[in-house]
Amino acid sequence: MALGIFSSTSLYYRARYYDSQTGRFISEDSSKFEANLSLYVYAGNTPTAYIDSLGTESEKPSLDSAVSQDAAAQITVGFNAALARLKNDNCKKLFGCNAEAKLRSTTYFTYKGGAEGGYTDPNHKDVYLNLQGALFNARSDGYIKLPRQNGNGHYLLGDAAAVQAFVLLHELGHELSDVTGFVPDGGKGNESKNRDNSLKLLGKCFLDARLMTE
Amino acid sequence: MIRRMLIGFVGLACCFSAEGQKIGIDLGKVKVVECRPTSITARDLVSLAINLRFTNTSQKNVLFYKEPSIIGGRVAAAKSELQKAAVWQADMVGDTQGAEKKSPGIDRFIRLKPTEHYDFYTTAERPELQTIKPGKYWIQMLVSTEPVEFYYSKKTRDQFQQQWKGSGDLADSDLWTPPFEIEIKHPGQVCTEKPN
Lengths: 214, 196
Hints:
The complex is a heterodimer of chains A (214) and B (196).
Chain A: E1 10-13, E2 16-19, E3 24-25, E4 62-63, H1 69-85, H2 89-95, H3 99-105, E5 107-111, E6 118-120, E7 127-130, E8 143-144, E9 154-156, H4 160-175, H5 177-180, H6 191-205, E10 210-212
Chain B: E1 6-9, E2 23-36, E3 45-56, E4 62-65, E5 69-76, E6 88-89, E7 109-112, E8 117-125, E9 135-144, H1 148-152, H2 154-163, E10 169-170, E11 175-176, E12 180-185
């Protein structure tokens, strides 16, 4: 099942499905009884306000209040997957000690533009995510193709949440460019820079990614 | 508090062509497309509607992509400050849908003879404008004039250029629009399109 289909009212959250019309999860939490609450309650049934990172914990990202519930749901899945990736030592080395704090303090906005994934605010370092872009259109197999990639290959990151984490961590790389060494990579002529930034991210934080040749 | 913002067309910039580019770009008009109050936020979503006129300023036939997109911009309080304003430039991140596999057909391009032009109307929510206060601003937009497949695969671009060489050369991308002025107002304004 593909994530990120806005017309769909059911979004898969790793272990559970969330019905955006009823505002409830419609399958049981795998941690079941540990939750000590209704099996269908997910962070108070307010996924825009709280996050359940791996289906077992709740954490809150900073979202602009205009972000829709569907969009918030997908950002939070990626946000928690990104936090999980940052616990890996290799990934930590890339982003530095303040990575988790920066991810948490970043405010995410949404807009509807062209085909790009989004923007990192050049003035305030907040992140604007394109509703037509990569994060909200992740495939369930975790497909991602980098710009001007040699060998016409693509990567499979495993699932849509990993792709969503990839997008947020790529933008975090720009936010923490002093540490990560990420260079500005938008626009024509910067395809290789964009690819190199992403390859750096893959090499440190997505060691489980599979390179597929076409 | 629910507010409304209005983007009103204030000025008109005209006629632009950069040296070395096959395609010149004229800004037709900027007009109000949407004044959307958002009841759940203190922020207003602002959309621009822009008519762009792309003119073939070269001596050759040019194959021009019919669906160019705005991929960046810069905003400043004064025209003279635009050049040093921070550039908002789209981060493609990666293709997550396999879009680069789609073969761009010739029907997605228009052939422009020298001096011929192509008019394109586009709307977009602009991140550059989402958090600024009411007032007058100068804006320049960066426009991509090639399909996203070309961004991901130079091979695809080269193959396409070779295949359709007899019809013309692909246009260069990216292009900056001329600077134009907008005014962001607060409510009470009627949200209607403003002609050129």
